[in-house]
Design goal:
387 residues, Aspartate Aminotransferase, domain 2, Aspartate Aminotransferase, domain 1, 7-stranded mixed β-sheet, 3-stranded antiparallel β-sheet, 13 helices, 15 strands, binds pyridoxal-5'-phosphate, transaminase activity
Length: 387
């Protein structure tokens, strides 16, 4: 087989002249940060997902930290999330001195299993952070039922899921708070960036104040008023602000989000058609409760039918210049979490899945030839390692 000449990454941004002009316009204007471009980007994302409010942050991780603060997470509070996600989904709880409790995944959907959440609830449970892994919507009805029963706050980690839907509703409009990320591998990018959407005015105001040092200039919120210069720092916040430069890029990117998702869906269809009849691999689950936004395409290996390990197959694909990846190393296995006392063997579905998965390249700027190269490489490598 012919090996691709250039390396194909698993994901990357797509920028056009409109994006570049939007950024240049800000550079020529008078605001570089927290100006009109932030308001416009927040309005645009809120309108797209159908939420009342949106607060932009310097990155998705900062946005999650803000959400944990606004939810009132503190020492002694337990927050339940999935181990099969990026470290940031759990780290945000630790920033607030809370305790992370992992609930295992459903081996079919790879998303957190509501029944496992139920088993992990204690008197100290305060919130749930479900993650729409790869863009597949989690079982929100079951999660909200549990949250209602135990009076828990739900913060969706939708870093993979802008543009996804659950039972006809847009992700971002449903829970107490929803986080989006605008890192370059995500659906739309601002370089670094994140956002929380919410329908609560109270949470909205807390988030805005948290992102800027805990300071308010709103006289209605202040305890005193020394004069026109006066501001009040009322709690310990951070500088987690996004720049206008980034927000302008984000607004311009939002115009293309639907096209980007349509491209991803088309490539997923081609992948599925090519791999569906290969017993050595298992194609991703397709939710019947909603539409995935397809951030990642994860192929699961049926290792019983293969000679090599996942590592061997992964390396063989890399050698063919296919930029495969693994999403994710379960968080509880990371050395920092091991030191905190989380145990290997405690979340068996996530641990087993981790041994079997390979992420294939998927991004809107891929060409049909790129997709065909991936399919051919997978077929050749699987043929080579078939028992
Ligand atoms: C990317 C990502 C984050 C963090 O977003 P950043 O913008 O990179 O800080 C959090 N959770 C998940 C699942 C992610 O993929």
């Amino acid at each position: 087989m012919n090996i691709r000449e250039t390396f194909l990454p698993y994901g990357k941004q797509q920028l056009d002249d409109q994006d570049i002009e939007a950024v240049v316009d800000v550079l020529k204007g008078s605001f570089l940060t927290t100006g009109p471009a932030i308001d416009e980007f927040e309005r645009k994302v809120a309108a797209y997902v159908g939420a009342e409010y949106a607060v932009a942050f310097s990155n998705g991780t900062a946005a999650l930290h803000g959400a944990c603060f606004a939810a009132g997470i503190g020492e002694g509070d337990e927050v339940i999330t999935t181990p099969m996600t990026f470290a940031a989904s759990a780290n945000c709880v630790l920033y607030q001195n809370g305790t992370v409790v992992f609930a295992d995944i459903d081996p079919r959907t790879y998303n957190i299993d509501p029944e496992e959440i139920r088993k992990k609830i204690t008197i100290n449970t305060k919130a749930i952070i479900p993650v729409h892994f790869t863009g597949q919507p989690v079982d929100l009805d079951s999660i909200h039922k549990i949250a209602k029963e135990y009076n828990l706050i739900v913060i969706e980690d939708a870093a993979h899921a802008i543009g996804a839907t659950y039972k006809g509703r847009n992700i971002g409009s449903i829970s107490d708070m929803t986080m989006f990320s605008f890192h370059p591998v995500k659906h739309v990018t601002t370089g670094e960036g994140g956002m929380i959407t919410t329908n609560s005015k109270e949470l909205y105001e807390k988030l805005k104040q948290f992102r800027s040092h805990g300071i308010t200039r709103n006289s209605k919120q202040m305890l005193e008023n020394h004069g026109p210069w006066y501001y009040e720092m009322q709690f310990l916040g951070y500088n987690y602000r996004m720049t206008d430069i980034q927000a302008a890029l984000g607004s311009s990117q939002m115009d293309k989000l639907d096209t980007f998702i349509a491209k991803r869906k088309g490539f997923v269809k081609t992948y599925n058609q090519s791999f569906n009849n290969m017993p050595e691999v298992i194609v991703p689950h397709q939710s019947s409760d909603g539409e995935s936004s397809w951030h990642l395409y994860i192929l699961k290996l049926n290792l019983d039918l293969l000679k090599g390990t996942r590592k061997k197959i992964f390396e063989a694909l890399l050698q063919r210049n296919i930029g495969v990846n693994v999403h994710y190393i379960p968080i509880h296995l990371l050395p920092y979490y091991q030191e905190l006392g989380y145990k290997k063997g405690s979340l068996q579905n996530a641990e087993q899945l981790y041994e079997e998965i390979i992420t294939l390249p998927l991004f809107p700027a891929m060409t049909v030839k790129d997709v065909m190269d991936v399919i051919e490489a997978v077929k050749v490598v699987i043929e080579e390692y078939r028992k």
